[in-house]
Amino acid sequence: MDSGTDNPTRMKNIKRVLSHFAKHAEFKAAMESEIGQELLGDALKRMEQIHAAILRHKETPAERSEFDGLLYITERWFSKINGYNNAVDYVEKNS
Q1: What does residue 90 show for φ and ψ, rounded to 5 degrees?
Q2: What is the dihedral of CA 11, 16, 21, 26, to 10 degrees?
Q3: In whole angstroms, how large is the CA radius of gyration of the chain?
Q4: Are 36 and 30 in contact (CB under 8 A)?
Q5: What is the SS3 string spanning the chain?
Q6: I need a labelling partner for 78 at 20 to 30 A (CA). Which of 38, 46, 60, 67 fits?
Q7: Average pLDDT in the chain
Q8: CB of 40 closer than 8 Å to CB of 31
Q9: pLDDT for 3-27, tens place per residue?
C-alpha cells in the first residue's frame, strides 16, 4: 500500500500540519489547564456583563473598549484551538 511519502503535495501538507501542531500544542495545553479554563471563564463572564449593558445602551466608552478587546482575544483563542483541532482531524483522516 502506498504510504503517500512519494506524493510531494501530501508530504508538504503533512509537514504543514506537523508545524501547526508544534506551534499550537503549548497554547492548547495552556487553555486546557485549570488556570487557562479559569481565565477563559473570567473573560466570557465579563463579556456577558458588558454585553448586558450594551443591550440596555448603558455601557461606558471604557466598557465598550474592554468588550471589543475581550472579543478580539477570545476570537483568537477559539481560532487557534480550532486550527489545532483541524490539524488533528487531518492527521487522523490521512494516517
Answers
A1: -60, -45
A2: 150
A3: 19
A4: yes
A5: CCCCCCCHHHHHHHHHHHHHHHHHHHHHHHHHCHHHHHHHHHHHHHHHHHHHHHHCCCCCHHHHHHHHHHHHHHHHHHHHHHHHHHHHHHHHHCC
A6: 60
A7: 82
A8: yes
A9: 545 667 766 766 776 676 667 777 7
